[in-house]
Amino acid sequence: MTSVWDEIDEWGPEKVLQVYDPDTGMKGVLVIDNTSKGPGKGGIRFAPSVTPLEVFRLARTMTWKCAAAGLPFGGAKGGIIADPNKVDRASWMKSFAKMIKPYCPSQYIAATDVGTTELDMAIFAHEIGDMRACTGKPSELGGIPHELGTTGYGVSVALQRSLDILKDLKIMQIPQKSQTRVVIQGFGNVGSFAARFLDQSGINVIGVSDVSGFIYNKGENGLNIPKLMKDMKGKAKLSDLKDYGYDIRDKDEIFEIDLDIFIPAAMGGVINNKTAPKLLGNGVKMVVEAANNPTTDDACEYLYKNNIWIVPDFLANAGGVIGSFVEYQGRTEKEAFDLIEYKITKNIKEVLTEAIMKEENPRKIATELSKQIVYRAMLLRKGAISVAREAYDRKDRISL
Questions:
Q1: Which residues contact 342 (CB under 8 A, 6 or more apart)?
Q2: In this predicted model, what pLDDT tens digit does every residue of 292-336 receive, in sequence order?
Q3: What CATH code is carried by the domain that includes residue 320?
């Protein structure tokens, strides 16, 4: 069975911590992957499926994501192993914060992720005793909550800019915005806001799903997203809308319908050797990765070889971490959304243009660009350490 130690390379991880609190029963993981560009940035995932290997892979994605976005952060990730609805989440979050406090915020800056909210970040920051220990805090604490939809907004920008570039270069033939069929897997904070911002831009969202079901409308105008989001207030899952007149199907039917663009906005590995051929057979032309690591390597290569464009996760879903950077600087919500649009537009244009010129998979191009940035930072850090050591040695010699 693969473990974190099987995947160690020249990039990291620098630290892997597994923590346990016998008083609460809390079990957690912190992986600090690479801090050459700055403290590791990454959310805290709260789910029973969390494993050290998963947390490491998410931390590595954050390393590339922060580099690609040009942010002074490295990559890291936290994880608490439990269903947050079945434990005392406040005490577990406080316990996790207490256990990793020596590393925050000098080496790790937290944020929300699957299973965590702005209130969890408030608990985390207060337990650490430093508001810089995390982002995504409530606005009352100077935060820019991820519940504002920063990640979903970035996904919508990535999708639209990708379409613009591929259409202008006559690489892809997709109908007008109002006729483009988008399906979103996952209707949490990321998927729901991606749907909202795409709908506002005139793009047709015809289906959304979560763990409980798949809501679909193949009509000319697709789903009424504002109504759907209004109906979902106070609801835990899409299946709670069974009496609201929606066509609710089995969640796996999301891979059985005709579409143009697929947005995985749930968990990792959902596009794999089994589901990728289904997407291809249903006419998919583009995958925009809103979730982290949603496509396996084999499936990514399979889709690319069949002329399906994949916008990599660490480009498409960087809106959250860009917004976190703005919060970290103490700036405003408007500045966060403006910077998200600027950076994601710039990065999408750079990666897709180079991928087309070199006839390479966009994920490979994006990863190589991020590696170059991180590698330069590693060299600079190594050089700075060498200079400091030389200065220290000279001082020692003088004192002797």
A1: none
A2: 899 999 999 999 999 999 999 999 999 999 999 999 999 999 999
A3: 3.40.50.720
